[in-house]
């Protein structure tokens, strides 16, 4: 079994909100495996959050660009928000987002593309910007969406300039109807995605490993009640149904009206659009999500607190 360190306990505490001793027990039970420890705490009802919380708010901007029936989005990181407010940096994000449409979601391809007006690649231009501004920067990721007929709608939350902010969303909608009406509805769906953060478009494309993991956690929780297996199975099925309703876009309650699912809202919007609507996909970037912060010394932190320092 791997050694349980103070840093591991701290990481689990930040991810779940559970107490220090509970986190230590969970890691011991899980032989040091972080994901299994989170599941153990959830099964015992000790975790305060079902999803691992992001511990990082890395700076920079999420930028997006729409061109015809295609759209692309990029996350470009910087060390400070001060640089993110720099006009040179903002212009670079806009240029990179425009190039990203041709990159098709491949960040390495994007970095190797020619930067406009220079004899440099995107990666080389970013390196030059680092030297000019004096702060580390990185084109971290990109995503793209296109439709055969219809629109790619977008929304930027905490926008600092058109097409750039802290959260970006792209949504693909296929339809033969009014482009104006479709764009209006698509923007609402994009706003919903920014708020609700769905895991997938529908249940069919959810990660099977994630589904199996959720079912295992719910089963363990149900067994804690001491009920027979046939009842446990029904309890798990009910909880999984709720999980799907909360996790997949088409089944989520549409935040714009608070009554219909997103799928039902799309059906209702067909009256304004004048043709059937099919939501084909979405992409959502939140600035800094998933980037690890610099680790501090948790053991020293606890010792300092205990001594009243």
Q: Can you walk through the features of this model?
A:
This protein has helices at residues 6-16, 20-29, 34-43, 81-84, 87-103, 107-111, 122-133, 179-196, 208-223, 229-247, 262-273, 298-306, and strands at residues 59-67, 70-78, 137-146, 150-157, 164-165, 167-174, 278-286. It is an alpha+beta fold and 309 residues long. The strands form 2 sheets. A 4-stranded antiparallel beta sheet has the order 3-2-1-5. Strands 4-6-7 form a 3-stranded antiparallel beta sheet, with helices on one face. A hairpin with a 2-residue loop joins strand 1 and strand 2 (70-78). Helix 2 crosses helix 3 (34-43), helix 3 (34-43) runs parallel beside helix 9 (208-223) and helix 9 (208-223) packs across helix 10. The model is unreliable at 49-57 and 294-298 (pLDDT under 50).
Task: For the structure shown, list the relevant keywords.
309 residues; alpha+beta; Helicase, Ruva Protein, domain 3; 2 domains; four-stranded antiparallel β-sheet; three-stranded antiparallel β-sheet; 12 helices; 7 strands; 46% helix; flat
């Amino acid at each position: 079994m791997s050694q349980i360190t103070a840093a591991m306990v701290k990481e689990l505490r930040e991810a779940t909100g559970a107490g220090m001793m509970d986190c230590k027990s969970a890691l011991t039970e899980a032989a040091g495996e972080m994901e299994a420890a989170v599941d153990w705490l959830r099964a015992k009802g000790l975790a305060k959050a079902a999803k691992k919380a992001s511990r990082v708010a890395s700076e920079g901007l999420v930028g997006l660009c729409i061109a015809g029936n295609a759209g692309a989005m990029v996350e470009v990181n910087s060390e400070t928000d001060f640089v993110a407010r720099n006009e040179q940096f903002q212009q670079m994000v806009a240029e990179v987002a425009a190039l990203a449409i041709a990159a098709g979601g491949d960040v390495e391809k994007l970095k190797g593309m020619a930067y406009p007006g220079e004899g440099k690649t995107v990666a080389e231009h970013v390196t030059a910007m680092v030297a000019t501004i004096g702060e580390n920067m990185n084109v971290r990721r990109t995503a793209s969406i296109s439709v055969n007929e219809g629109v790619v709608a977008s929304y930027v939350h905490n926008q600092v300039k058109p097409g750039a902010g802290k959260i970006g969303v792209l949504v693909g909608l296929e339809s033969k109807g009014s482009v104006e009406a479709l764009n209006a509805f698509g923007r609402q769906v994009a706003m919903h995605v920014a708020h609700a953060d769905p895991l997938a478009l529908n249940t069919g494309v959810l990660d099977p490993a994630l589904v199996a993991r959720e079912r295992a956690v719910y089963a363990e929780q149900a067994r804690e009640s001491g009920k027979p297996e046939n009842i446990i199975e029904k309890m798990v099925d009910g909880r999984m149904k709720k999980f799907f309703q909360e996790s997949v876009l088409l089944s989520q309650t549409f935040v714009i009206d608070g009554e219909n699912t997103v799928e039902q809202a799309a059906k209702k919007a067909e009256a304004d659009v004048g043709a059937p609507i099919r939501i084909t996909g979405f992409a959502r970037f939140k600035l800094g999500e998933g980037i690890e912060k610099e680790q501090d010394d948790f053991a020293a932190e606890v010792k300092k607190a205990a001594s009243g320092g």
